[in-house]
Amino acid sequence: MVFIHNSVVRGGLVKVVEDYVTKGKEIAIEGKLTNRSWDDKEGKKHYTTEIICNELLMF
């Protein structure tokens, strides 16, 4: 099963992701779901759900 979500990585995990994670790589992440919104240049409101990653496992 494949799920695609936007993920936010901070701290020491940033370097790990930059160096080892590539498109199509199978990973498992643990974190907190967050929702945010923003207005674009035309004033249209957009919404997104992101995972704030605090643990990463690579297979």
CATH homology superfamily name? Nucleic acid-binding proteins
Give the overall silhouette: elongated
Pattern of helices and strands? EHEE
Give the structural class: mainly beta
What number of domains? Answer: 1
Helical stretch tally: 1
Unreliable runs, pLDDT <50, ≥5 residues?
none
Largest beta sheet: what is the strand line-up? 1-3-2
CATH architecture: Beta Barrel
Folded structure, characterized:
The protein is mainly beta. The protein has a three-stranded mixed β-sheet with strand order 1-3-2. It has one helix at residues 13-20; strands at residues 6-9, 27-39, 45-58. The model has no long low-confidence stretch (mean pLDDT 92). 0% of the residues are buried. It is built from one helix and three strands, in the order E-H-E-E.
What labels describe this entry?
single chain; 59 residues; mainly beta; OB fold (Dihydrolipoamide Acetyltransferase, E2P); three-stranded mixed beta sheet; 14% helix; 53% strand; elongated
Topology:
Blueprint: E1 6-9, H1 13-20, E2 27-39, E3 45-58
Parallel strand pairs: 1-3
Antiparallel strand pairs: 2-3
